[in-house]
Amino acid sequence: MNKPSDATLVIIPTYNELENLPLIVGRVREATPEVDILVVDDNSPDGTGDKADELAAGDGHINVLHREGKGGLLGAYLAGFEWGLERDYAVLCEMDADGSHAPEQLHLLLSEIDAGADLVIGSRYIDGGKVVNWPKKRWILSKGGNMYISLALGAGLSDMTAGYRAIRREVLEALDFAELSDAGYIFQVDLARRAVTEGFDVREVPITFTEREIGESKLDGSFVKDSLLEVTRWGVTHRVGQATELAKELKKLAAHELKSMRRKRSRQ
Question: Which ranges carry the Glycosyltransferase 2-like domain (predicted)?
Fold first, then answer.
């Protein structure tokens, strides 16, 4: 019997990852030789796109999608999702090119997909998860930010900003890509919260996140400000929605009790 993970595409966005790309692709091919890889390159000036083409020429499991310019991580993933959905992949995965997401742990995410999950997040902040080689201040900022996000949105997830994910195609088909937020990297939170809201089975598995050793991070300081402002707005909307639903239920309960009281009086 076929499993969803039998048709898996791992999407790896790249911009100036010439040294990292052969390493991460090699690790994916060794750890999970059955999956296909799609490198989405944003016209890297360091020749990453050419290296991706070279790798693909020698391996039928490797594919390359070239984009015209540096269009951002969300745009790269959306292009990758569309490419994969057009080719009938059942599971689409997000993975960083810099080695921070261990390909050797991909099987943990795919096992949960095969066990019935719709979206699986590789989490740094549940039991068994950890971060390697981060400064203490960055860990506190990330951990605290995720605690705030969880509290604000009530999604019951510990690491909604995480970018190591396995997603069933049904989740992506249910989303309107045009509605995903592009504030910072907050689209990861947006995708997860929309999946939860739509009633999909969203789970977390513990992973080890390792800070890149080659190259520079693409994150900048605006990420925190833009992301938390967006989350606060969603949180307010979420709480207002909860209050509205609670008011409706209380109104129904009151009406029911009033009818019961009237029946009792009419029998007396």
Answer: 10-174
